[in-house]
Amino acid sequence: MFSAGRLQNASTEVDRIIQLLEIAPGASVLDFCCGIGRHSLEFARRGYAVSGVDRTRTYLQRARAQAMAEGLKVEFIQSDALSFSRPATFDAAVSMFTSFGYFEDPEDDFKVLQILHAALRGSGRLLIDLNGKEVIARKFRDREWHQHDDGTLGLEERKVRNGWEWIDSRWILMGPGGKAWEGTISIRLYSGVELTALLERAGFSVVQLYGNLAGEPYNDSAERLIAVATK
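User: That's the sequence. What structure does it adopt?
Assistant: Structure tokens below.
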């Protein structure tokens, strides 16, 4: 999940996020579902006031250790997405790497967007990075092998259900010593129209969709679903 390649890409991704959100120097940034903090740390390296939120303690421990090693000031908060509350605190917020859409009840997705809307100041902006429904449908393969940076071989089996509402991804990872991990990750699928409607319902005034972080259109050649929502 956090391969060397993804860690290296964080610098370019943050450059593009700053451009898309038009984040002013020194602004306060919320990295929601921050994982091991690859974007939080990169924002901090550029002088932003950063808070990273995640529910997984081991991820946050790794993020804090890296921040300490580099002498970076980052606030890392352990919290479930539905429990977080920091009203009118941030100039910008990001939710990267398909960190949105895991709740069984779709109203919980809506509540998360309300929480993020409330966390922004004034006309602050939120960026959500997802694997959009249209992108998945265009590229869909029910089974695929992956060779990871550390030599681990992974098999991913995908199954769409409930009329393209959900996708289940079953992973089997095999390292040099044999099978290392097996599990299924399920996520709700959002089209561009569906995500826009949910963001507007949560109170965002303007929603713009892009096909990647470089700001290209969300069309038939889109790589990702990137939503930029203004409070």
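Helices lie at 4-21, 38-45, 57-70, 106-119, 133-139, 192-201.
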